[in-house]
Amino acid sequence: MVRLIHPEHRQRILDRYQEIISSCERFLLEYMIIRPSDGEIRWILVHGDIECDKACTYRYLVGTIQDITERKQVETDLRVAASAFESHEAMVITDAEAVILRINQAFTELTGYIPKDVVGHKINMLNSGQHDDTFYVAMWEKINHTGIWQGEIWDRRKNGEIYSLWLTITAVNDTAGVATHYVATYIDISDRKAAEDEIKHLAFNDHLTNLPNRRLLLDRLKPALASSHRSGRKGALLFIDLDNFKTLNDTLGHHMGDLLLQQVAKRLESCIREGDTVARLGGDEFVVMLEDLSEYANEAEVQTEVIGNKILDSLNKPYLLSTHEYHNTASIGATLFNKHEKSIDELMKQADIAMYQAKASGRNALRFFDPQMQARINALAALESDLRQALIENQFIIYYQPQVHHNNQIIGAEMLIRWQHPQRGLVFPADFIPLAEETGLILPIGQWVLKTACAQLKTWEANVHTQHLRLSVNVSVRQFHQADFVEQILQIIRCSNIKPDRLRLELTESLVLDDIDDTILKMNELQKIGVLFSMDDFGTGYSSLAYLTKLPLYQLKIDQSFVHNIGVKPSDAAIAQTIIGMANNLNIEVIAEGVETEVQRIFLEQHDCPLFQGYLFSKPVPIELFEELLK
Ligand code: C2E
Ligand code: MG
Ligand code: MG
To answer: 415: CA distance to ligand 2 center in Å?
Structure first.
């Protein structure tokens, strides 16, 4: 008998029997045995009495033994279930009608509900009102079909607060497969949600000012356009750029720059109505989007102007950056929008163009986009593409304007470019050289002019009547400051196989001052092989004696504005006279350009100017005509 008792229980049970026998009590014992027939472990319940003989000398046990293994198993399962139920996850058990039977402690902690608040109520008392009926219908359909539903859902806490959670509802089926209970598990994901929101916020907001960034602005522009389309009311886009922000950054440092941007952001926000948007595009560029303006363009423009001026005023007030008092202004470009008639891209571009217009007008100003601005920009774009075509199709030609000694002998010519435009006819350099400079097209154009010059010199070299002639070529800033400019010239000279000493390059004062060390270096190198330099338009720039003596110049060209005023404005005549004297003293050749009248020529000659160029002698002409003039 003793051997049957499971070793784990054996000692405890034997001790209990000893006590029972000595106390003559009724007893109830549960323990495990090893069933002798198959060695299986079974739980038994022993229920009995101690019986004695009359003298109470002999005692024996009387009772029943019951196999309770099954019951024990159920109890264990229940204990496991109960402890699982009290786990850290919030849980609710309902009956088949979704009436709450039990909730656990974690549920109380999550929602604030205690059992008596909810037990006996339908589970839908927890609904937040954030989802419509179809949502719940679909949810229960899924549970009844598949036995489980999982998803993100909004619920309501006892205090009314709505929170997001990850909900799992599982159906508990009986052996026939009919749902008898439902178990709902709640995982609070508000923290995760908050983190997601934070990430979204970072993606759509500028971290420095916390304002919407470009992406969010574009996102908001779409519905704004749509709503303007529906209501017929106009909106406006204002591009705001701080004046001199770079200077602040460079002088007081980026930290101060950041402080300024933050304060600007606050001020901008205070200038607009709720529903309007302030965004920061980056750097010192901000955008304000106004909505719901008047449906009439002129009224909407006035409304925009009022806000724009309010912004200018506000940004004009002094800033306190750490301990520095700082003053700043801004330039604003504005454009109205209405319906979908312009694309977002177009709108942004228009506001940007208007902003540049405000800057160009002297800053601290508001400008509206004006279609003429766009027309000018379009015209420039068309001109640029025409220029590219002109290069491919060789539409440029060179005119030659004689340079004359006072004895009327032609000593050479200045080469002046013209563009033979297929539709517009002859185009003068003032109408395309600046754009060619800006776009870099001046580089191939300049190369072509230099090659043409060398080829012409080569042709003249072969003829005794022309071999003494020199050619002056205008060189632009961008062209001259190319790193390999000297190399390019040498290459062209080599290829055309000319003597370089008749090639003259005309530079301007601004070109020289752009990078004076680089200029001197290049000039010296080219001068070594015989290429000489002339200072064009002399007198209009800085005309500093200091650089004049440093530069290896062979010639000064008196600017035509002084020549023009000879006999008209004595001070200009005096300047021309001074330049001649200075050049002669420094042993630099001097030439007067733009000589149109005999009066001018006589004055210049009387003051020792040996060379002239101007309409008095000849306008710039094509090569054939120039060669005619030589005769
Ligand atoms: P610039 O080098 O100062 O050329 C002198 C300008 O004055 C020329 O204008 C010429 O036609 C004009 N001119 C000459 N004599 C007279 C006169 O008696 N009266 C008046 N009113 N004007 C006179 P153009 O040909 O229109 O050239 C204008 C400017 O374009 C040039 O000024 C030069 O800076 C630039 N340019 C011309 N050709 C080239 C070139 O091949 N390359 C570069 N980079 N610039 C060039
Ligand atoms: Mg010139
Ligand atoms: Mg000139």
So the answer is: 8
CA–centroid distance, residue 259 to ligand 2 (Å)? 49
| One-letter amino acid of 116 | K
Q: CATH 3.30.450.20: which residues of the chain?
A: 2-73, 86-193
Q: In Å, what is the CA distance from 132 to each residue of 127, 128, 189? A: 10, 10, 21
Could you tell me the distance, in angstroms and rounded to a whole number, from the CA of residue 382 to the centre of ligand 2? 27
> What is the average per-residue pLDDT within 333-337?
94
What is the average per-residue pLDDT within 169-177? 84
> Which residue minimizes the CA distance to atom 25 of ligand 1?
416
- Report the pocket of ligand 1 as residue ranges, CB < 6 Å: 401, 416-417, 428-430, 433, 446, 449, 474, 476, 506, 536-537, 560, 593-596, 613-615, 620
Å from CA of 220 to ligand 1 middle = 52
Instruction: Give the separation between CA 197 and CA 424, rounded to whole angstroms.
Output: 60
CATH number of the 384-630 domain = 3.20.20.450
Which residue has a Cα nearest atom 41 of ligand 1?
417
Two structure tokens written together for 215: 């992406």
**Architecture in CATH of 2-73:** 2-Layer Sandwich (3.30)
pLDDT given for residue 335 in this prediction = 95
- Per-residue HEC secondary structure of 315-359 comes to HHCCEEECCEEECCCEEEEEEEECCCCCCHHHHHHHHHHHHHHHH
531-561 pLDDT per residue, tens: 999 999 998 877 677 788 889 999 999 999 9
Q: How confident is residue 51, by pLDDT bands cut at 50, 70 and 90?
A: confident
* CATH T-level fold of 86-193: Beta-Lactamase (3.30.450)
Highest CATH level, class, for 208-369: alpha beta
Instruction: Name the pTM for this structure.
Output: 0.57
